[in-house]
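Narrative of accomplishments. A recurring question from our advisory board has been how the design workflow behaves on a single, concrete structure rather than in aggregate. To address it, we present the structure tokens for one chain from the evaluation set, followed by the sequence designed for it. No filtering or post-editing was applied between the two.
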């Protein structure tokens, strides 16, 4: 009497499923780490730009003379709220880098302790953003995801650990996504970040008109240099100050353009940040449902975020003439 081959077939199919999950997890770990690094860069660029406000505000008040009124900036409580939210976004991105690094290790071995630590850090970072925006923490849900046993063979146990970790990442990303997707949160971060940019450039215009930037033609020099042209400015110092009607008009036009450029970049960064999280969620859901991965969208959004980070950093250098 022939024995049934079903148990053997079951083991074989389970083995193939485990191999597929492990391979997909390795690919997603690499793509996720790369995307999170770009997310970290753009979030940091927005945050650093926001921090410039109080520095320029302090200088503006120090140099206000002859009855001049300093530029009005946002209330300190509002500033602190947005500052904390922007810092929390950096923390989320940094935690995601660690999570994907540990996720990759888990797909190569059973480095569970590293994964638990990284997931806990991600959960804490998302919770900090929630506190900054809504005043409420998100309860931690991360727990060790390998129990006793784990399957018939080590590979099945590894697959189970990957799938459980994947669920934890989905949970954290969903919480982060929900915070970003709330219209009131978007309004607060984007609008107030753009307001801060406006205040910052108004102060720069005042500095220029007061003569505190006299002779500083480096901003326009660098703008032209960006186009690949090489030239040398010639003339007296006043030719490159607010005392020159032509150069004064050119500098004020440049500052207005740079302000609009940065404001648009900050809004674009927020929306790309949200879309990248949505893209990561799609791929983690694909692993959960054992469907094909597609990193096209993630790659494009990561490139976009890096371009925004580069733009904001370049504008910062142009303003300071560095």
């Amino acid at each position: 009497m022939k024995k049934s081959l079903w148990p053997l077939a079951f083991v074989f199919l389970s083995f193939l499923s485990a191999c597929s999950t492990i391979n997909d997890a390795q690919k997603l770990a690499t793509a996720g780490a790369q995307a999170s690094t770009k997310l970290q860069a753009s979030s940091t660029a927005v945050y650093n730009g926001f921090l410039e406000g109080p520095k320029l505000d302090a200088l503006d008040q120090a140099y206000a003379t002859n009855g001049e009124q300093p530029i009005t900036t946002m209330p300190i409580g509002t500033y602190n709220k947005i500052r904390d939210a922007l810092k929390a976004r950096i923390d989320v991105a940094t935690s995601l880098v660690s999570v994907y690094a540990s996720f990759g290790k888990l797909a190569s071995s059973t480095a569970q302790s590293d994964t638990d630590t990284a997931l806990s850090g991600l959960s804490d970072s998302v919770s900090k953003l929630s506190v900054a925006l809504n005043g409420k923490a998100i309860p931690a849900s991360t727990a060790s995801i390998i129990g006793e046993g784990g399957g018939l063979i080590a590979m099945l146990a590894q697959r189970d650990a990957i799938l459980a970790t994947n669920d934890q990442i989905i949970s954290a990303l969903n919480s982060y996504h929900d915070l970003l997707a709330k219209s009131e949160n978007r309004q607060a971060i984007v609008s107030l970040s753009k307001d801060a940019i406006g205040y910052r450039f108004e102060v720069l215009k005042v500095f220029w008109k007061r003569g505190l930037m006299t002779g500083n033609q480096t901003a326009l020099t660098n703008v032209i240099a960006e186009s690949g042209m090489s030239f040398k400015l010639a003339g007296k110092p006043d030719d490159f100050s607010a005392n020159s009607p032509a150069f004064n008009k050119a500098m004020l036009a440049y500052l207005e353009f740079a302000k609009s450029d940065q404001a648009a970049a900050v809004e674009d960064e927020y929306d790309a940040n949200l879309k990248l999280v949505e893209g990561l969620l799609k791929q983690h859901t694909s692993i959960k449902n054992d469907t094909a991965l597609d990193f096209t969208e993630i790659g494009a959004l990561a490139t976009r975020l890096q371009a925004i980070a580069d733009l904001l950093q370049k504008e910062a250098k142009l303003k300071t003439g560095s």
